[in-house]
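INFO worker-7 received task bundle
INFO bundle size: 2
INFO processing item 0
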Amino acid sequence: QVQLVESGGGLVQAGGSLRLSCAASGRTDSTYGMGWFRQAPGKEREFIAAISWNGDSISYATSMKGRFTISRDDAKNTVYLQMNSLKSEDTAVYYCAAQVARNRPYDYWGQGTQVTVSS
């Protein structure tokens, strides 16, 4: 089993920045990589970015490129999402997830962290 805990969410003004963290514990050695997703009220969950633990693969949703950056700290088993130039439409619950193999559905999910961007 893998446990994921997100942190770093909060209230920020439009144009501001936040960095989300996702700490992984448990059988992290059984996972291939991590991803970030978000879900706004009344909307479906959407993919933001993903990164492999060995760093050979990083991907972004087209709409997220440029403002969002995913990174990792292997020593801390932590993945980050740096979010810049935030907009009100970025308001959502942000989730991290882990997958055990490339191109597989994500197997483990965190509880989510709320990000609210005020205009």
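INFO item 0 finished
INFO processing item 1
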Amino acid sequence: QVQLVESGGGLVQAGDSLRLSCAASGFTFSLSRMGWFRRAPGKEREFVAVISRSNIGTEYDDVVKGRFTISRDNAKNTVYLQMNSLKPEDTGVYYCAKMFSTGRDANYWGQGTQVTVSS
């Protein structure tokens, strides 16, 4: 079965950086688009970023564009989210996702990792 396990969350100060990792198993990772979502306190889960199967194409929500970078290592079945210049409004639970073949929606999510940015 599909398993997505996130790691790397934590408590940081505004302006700091964090790198999230997601270890994937149970499916052919190299053939799947992968993404990240987040859920801020009291809000719905929202799209953050997606990366193509071949590590060439990426898309970002406008709120994180220029600060976050999604990448993947198909040899390690792992997808990453490098987050720079973090802001308090980036606080939330971050979820790794196995994306549908097109668009910004997913059919599987991990359990999530908490990111808290203090001001």
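INFO item 1 finished
INFO post-check item 1: The two ends are 40 Å apart (CA to CA).
INFO post-check item 1: The chain has a mean pLDDT of 97.
INFO worker-7 idle
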